[in-house]
Amino acid sequence: MTQPVPMVEIWRGDLLESQHLGHAVVCDASGKVVEAWGDDEKVIYPRSSCKMLQALPLIESGAADAYGLTSEHLALACASHQGAAIHTDRVQLWLDGLGLSVDDFRCGPQKPSDKDAHEALVRAGKQPCQIHNNCSGKHSGFLTLNKHLGAGSEYIEVDHPVQRASREAFEEMTGETAEYYGIDGCSAPNFSTSVAGLARAMAKMAKPDGTGARAQASKRLVEAMCAHPDLVAGEGGACTELMRAMGGKVAIKTGAEAVYVAILPEQGLGMALKIVDGGTRAAEAAIAGLLVKYGVLDANHPAARKYLHGPILSRRGLNTGHMRLSEGFVQV
Amino acid sequence: MTQPVPMVEIWRGDLLESQHLGHAVVCDASGKVVEAWGDDEKVIYPRSSCKMLQALPLIESGAADAYGLTSEHLALACASHQGAAIHTDRVQLWLDGLGLSVDDFRCGPQKPSDKDAHEALVRAGKQPCQIHNNCSGKHSGFLTLNKHLGAGSEYIEVDHPVQRASREAFEEMTGETAEYYGIDGCSAPNFSTSVAGLARAMAKMAKPDGTGARAQASKRLVEAMCAHPDLVAGEGGACTELMRAMGGKVAIKTGAEAVYVAILPEQGLGMALKIVDGGTRAAEAAIAGLLVKYGVLDANHPAARKYLHGPILSRRGLNTGHMRLSEGFVQV
């Protein structure tokens, strides 16, 4: 088993203070590994990075069209959103359109990471609810598929038709049988894959094979993510800022415990990486580095600089340190 | 150079999802390394874990007694507090007693991590200020020493008498010349040491040599931390919960980027550890493991179980995974 490689360094003054190791893979649409660091066969949970795969059955089943979902809905289905008004207002309308309510969600409540939304709740004396959960768009997609299928209310159970469809699409796209599954933070099952399998799935999203239902669904989801970077995360979020910096030509997505994926339609490439320790700052820096290397992100764009280098500021705004990619990984 | 060792594992379902590596050292008061994992000579910034060393000149100079500081003040000087009312009210009174104001701080503003304090600010339409900075107790100590010395207002500059005194005490206690310094999040300098040097300093705090000013100051600071675990961090904080679980017999302190130290007076031992990737959850688990191994923390105490094992819950409260210490590190 190949060991993980140093990927991201945190410097303070002249001392390397902290360091992150990881695995990363770039695949083409034939499934061929174009480039890899660490162990491309390392088995991981993709967590939220695979929401676009989980959303494939929503379209392929006909549910998305039956309920008139737009590209905004599809972007939200792929999102880990910040619970800002632009997210929760749309999710509420989506639920209304389904004739369902927040109580039909099974994702659990979460404090919005959007500052304004959180402060508005506090001022109103209200508690965060399930609509603020960063996965409420994904769960709206699950509920839409579930209504279309006419299945039972516990749509997050691993043997429920919604999750069986999700697993099937996931395994077809990764080209692997999921060896493990875990319960995600939103209580839905999350299936395992190798890092190469995840990159392969992203390459297939980037350059779908043929013109069938899978190809069309893949294309619609990637286009939705690229068209609505603000819905996929939110203001100040890495997915949003980096997708904007790439002018809507590349879809990227973060997952908990430091997973990141990228879908490059023009290049027909998919990327996936996992930082071993789960440190999100390193996953953001590493994916930014890969995107620069493959020519889709300008290393001098302010968003690229922010996620690649920092700076790391004190609470008075003094420059105390910076990040950089480790030798042996991508050099930008 | 010895490599860092696996210390803490994050499991979800039956898959090892993330892993943290680190360095750890246990020293006795003679400076002898009793036990070590990874590289005991690894040079690190102790960050906030060394606040009790930075507070030594406050007492040794006579400033603490000249301004009537109690053990509560001393505990706050060693604290990374959560900005709760029990912290900020005391810091405000301390400033009042010095005839100074929040504007004399140079630590910068910080959102209180205490939920109630943060929500009270939001409801009042107020912004967090410097008093909410987790280091405002340390900076009150700096201001007290500074007033006693009659030095200039920029007490956080590295060549200011307050920081020169802090560096001198730090180097005497670690037994090392600091090779590097960095600017901490609170804009004060933070000096480097090896992990062994930091553990050595903690052992000297645990079992001071002789009855001189250093010994007395060390004893007062350790007693203050042990007497006021709620002031050292706050409700729900690892330092507070684990110190309470040990019945006030051991002082422990966290530092940013996953440093942790422990002072064991009855055993005459000091501990220090650094998780390479800066992951705080792992530093908390690792110090809890060391404290269990050395017989001062009951592995079955709820606080010990929380920091050693989790559980890791979904947002609906489902048990999704757990933490455990890696093979080759402490087994509890």
From TrEMBL, chains A, B:
It comes from the Bacteria. Pfam families: Asparaginase_II (PF06089). InterPro entries: Asparaginase_II (IPR010349). This is Asparaginase.
